[in-house]
Every structure is written in structure tokens, then in C-alpha cells.
Amino acid sequence: MVLENCELETTVFERPDTLTGTTTHYCPGCTHGIANRLIAEVIDEMGMREKTIGVASVGCSVFIYNYLNMDFVQAPHGRAPAMATGVKRVLPDRMVFTYQGDGDLASIGMAEIVHAAARGENITVFFLNNTNYGMTGGQMAPTSMPGQKTTSSQNGRDVETQGYPIRVSEMFSKLDGASYIVRRSLHDPKNIRMAKKAIRMAFETQVRGLGFSMVELLSICPTNWGMTPKNSIQWLEDKMIPYYPLGDYKIHPALAEIKL
User: Fold this and answer.
1) In the chain, what are the domain boundaries?
2) Kind of pairing, strands 247-251 and 178-185?
3) What would the mean pLDDT of 207-229 be, rounded to a whole number?
């Protein structure tokens, strides 16, 4: 029997070799999984899996070593930049990165990350900002916005008593040791594509020996925000992006020649 007018199936996506088939622990709608996939895709495209070492932090990010098929070490809470510094100095030919949430990076680990950036350590940092402590129940984080309700600020963040949020990318862009500092988002296809390009550029910064690079990724947390994934995406677009504007905060001049 001959079938007429049939169309052959076309493969539009394959799981990156670096991304394992392990079922993740992330909540439904969480965009950590997107970040994991983008990092895996870039490492594969660069052909660097056997020369890359990841440093896992503490938080929802902690089990990334189960999802990326490559060498990993586990850091104590907030200490991923210090561990990455040691790994990179001992093995300077490796591509070393940390994967951290806002509680790990901007609270208990703030001293570690600031001084790593100030020293111009030749490492790459991926910073997932979902404005709360995701793993421990949705408490207020250094990035929780004014008026934002969390399990530890049920009337909303009061800046008079609890201070203002920390805009990490803006702050790090002022440090001389930082070479590539950008903020992207994971809330729609266009911004996901832009995030992937930023991840590649951050790794290229390190490969070229230009110093510290960081990609901040705005991420949703439907479970702790008490929203559906769809409403969480809209909330990120309506509330987070105005407070945390997307953009390039610092780019080393030597990166201008790279076309992605």
C-alpha cells in the first residue's frame, strides 16, 4: 500500500548528551530545569564536557550534579565561589562554573561571591533569582521585592524594617574584576534563547581568560509564590522585570568580536 501526501517526521529537539535522563526534583513549572538544559546544550556545543567542572551550591540548585553528566563537586552553603576558585587555580585548563540561587549567593554567600568577582577569578557563575528561599519553604530572600509576601514576610517586605532588595548584577558591574555581567530571564521562548547566548558568552569569557563572569537568570517559583505556572510567568513579567531590568550590565571589550 502506497501512502500519498505523507510527511516525514522531523526531529526538532534531542536531549543534550550532557543532560542526563534523571527525573528532576523541581516543582511543576519551575524554570531551574530550563537553566540546566541550556547549560548542557552550551557545554555540548563547545565540546567542553570532559574539561568542565561544576560546583553545586545549597538550595533548589543542589541536585544539579544529578542532571548534568559531568564532573561536579558539592560546596557548603554559600561557599561555591570559594570552591570554584580553588578548583580553577589548581586546574586552570578546566572550565569551572557555579550554579547558585539567590539565598545561597546573595545572603550567606555574599562575601564569597563579591570577593571572587573583585579578584577577577576566572570562573563563571549562574545565578538563579526567584526572589525567595525555594528549598526551605519560600521565606524572604535578599532579592524579595518591596511589598512581596513570603512565608516570613506575610504582610509584604517592609523596607523600613527589613531593608531593600539587593540588585546583584548592578552591584557586580561596578567591580573592576568583573568582565561579563548580564541579566536574562527564563519566562518565554525569546528570552530563553537570549539566556542561552548569555551562557555561551559567559563561558567564552572564561575560556579567553578575561576574568569573572556571571549570568543572572530571573526564574519562577510557582509553589512558593502560591500561583499557577502560567500566572507565575505573568507575575515575573509584570513585577520582577520592572524591578530587575534585563540587560547587559558589563561586557569586556574583547567580547565584542564574538558573534553568536
Assistant:
1) 32-139+164-257
2) antiparallel
3) 97
